[in-house]
Amino acid sequence: MLESSNMQFTPWHRYLYRVTFGSILIVLGIAELLLVPSEGPLIPTILLAAGLAFVIAGVTRWRRFGNAPEQDERSKKIGAWGISYSWFLSLLFMTVLFLLDYLQVVILTVQTALGVSVMVMTLSAVAFQLYLSRAGDVA
Amino acid sequence: MQTRIKEYRTALGLTQEELAARVQVRRETIVFLEKGKYNPSLRLAHAVAKALGTTVDDLFSFGDEEGGAGGG
Q1: Any idea what the CATH number is for the domain that residue B51 is in?
Q2: Helix B16-23 crosses helix B27-35 at what angle (to 10 degrees)?
Q3: What is the pTM of this model?
Q4: Per-residue confidence in pLDDT tens, chain A, 139 aa
Q5: Measured between CA atoms, how close is B25 to chain A, in angstroms?
Q6: Which range of residues forms the domain containing residue B41?
Q7: Could you report the predicted ipTM of this complex, rounded to two decimals?
Q8: Closest residue of chain B to A137, computed from CA coordinates
Q9: Which residue of A lies nearest to B25 if distances are taken between CA atoms?
Q10: Cα separation values, B34 from A25, A55, B56, Å
Q11: How far apart are CA A28 and CA A43, in angstroms?
């Protein structure tokens, strides 16, 4: 009991937990695929993809950061501002999309509008964060 | 913004990685701090100054200091 309370949570533990959790998801996905084949491939595919994402993220981040902090005040600041800029750009984009549809310049299905919006949100968030990260700061 | 971080760091024989580890930030943050491209929080500025054995006032200077906030 005393020993466990003295244990320190190091970056190594975080990477280990990620890889372990990912491995469990992969095993569950394979087990579901083999043991319950009538359920179809959807759930096993989701489990395998999520598991692989956890394992890959755990290994690559360990190789990149090691015992150094994964995040610090600069990266958190850039992350938050990148998301904010992305949100604003997405709002503008969806307004334009709405007007184009309203004026019947383009005819959009719900699926297309949602798909394009999700893509713009994701890509713009990554692009803004990358740009700010290279610039050094948000100002 | 100009900083004397590099000057103090090299005088102490520290690498950017070592300084980053001492103040618990990424190495990139130290790089941008030294270039004067990152405006740190007061907490980080204090931590860096403490790690380098100096004061915040000595480490950071701003171009508009002549104007002074309390000038008059």
Answers
A1: 1.10.260.40
A2: 110
A3: 0.73
A4: 444 455 677 778 888 999 999 999 999 999 998 888 887 888 999 999 999 999 999 999 888 888 788 889 999 999 999 999 999 999 999 999 999 999 999 999 999 999 999 999 999 999 999 999 999 988 7
A5: 5
A6: 2-58
A7: 0.81
A8: B38
A9: A72
A10: 43, 35, 14
A11: 10
